[in-house]
Amino acid sequence: MTASLERWLARFETALLYLGVLATFGMMCLTSADAISRYLFNSPILGALEITEKYLMVAAIFLGLAYGYRGGLFIRVTFLVDRLDGRAKLAADYFAYAVTLSFCLFFLWATGIQGWRGLHDDTEISTLPILVGPAYCFVPIGFLALTLLMLTDLPRLRRRQSLLFTQESPSGT
Questions:
Q1: Measuring CA to CA, how many Å separate 154 from each of 65, 147, 165?
Q2: Is 163 helix (H, G, I), strand (E, B) or coil?
Q3: Quick check: 65 and 143 in contact, CB under 8 A?
Q4: Total-model pTM
């Protein structure tokens, strides 16, 4: 893997992370403004719930997949694997990696098809003339970043330096 490809992938991952953080911030602001508008002025913001659930929440969750992988945030149950010897543990690591990558590829393919269909559909949010289809693209974009990161991480697996098996660092350290 070339260093330039890894730098490009890191920039792509960072851009997705910032978009996810921006979506989270937007969700917070829109929900707060809607609650204030609803209870103080008895006039809710039209489409706030739909925009939050169809766009902002999806972006906040799926655009951060690669960041979660790199940070060791994926769930692992290791009480059996930790008791294995070197070769058996490496085989279990390869198996876990293959299963995880297979799921990523499957979800990338399936959500990519759904995103493609969504882009060619004229379905709108019920309260506003905003197309829902583009929101479907956040999911395959997140899985694309995760799959590419996993593929670049594959050579590290044999050296036991794979990001899939790194532990989350405690907060504050």
A1: 17, 11, 12
A2: helix
A3: yes
A4: 0.83
CB 167 within 8 A of CB 77: no
What is the three-class DSSP state of 126?
coil
Question: Above 80 in pLDDT, residue 99?
Answer: yes
Residue 166: how many other CB atoms lie within 10 Å: 17
**Structural domain harbouring 78:** 3-165
Q: Which band of pLDDT confidence, cut at 50, 70 and 90, is reported for residue 160?
A: confident
Q: How many domains does the chain have?
A: 1
- Tell me the Ramachandran region of residue 81: left when phi exceeds 0, alpha when psi lies from -120 to 50, beta otherwise: alpha
Binning the chain into helix, strand and coil, the percentages to the nearest 5 are 70, 0, 25
Could you tell me if residue 89 is inside a domain?
Answer: yes
Structure tokens that stand for 52 in this block: 């939050």
48, part of any domain: yes
In a domain, 173, yes or no: no
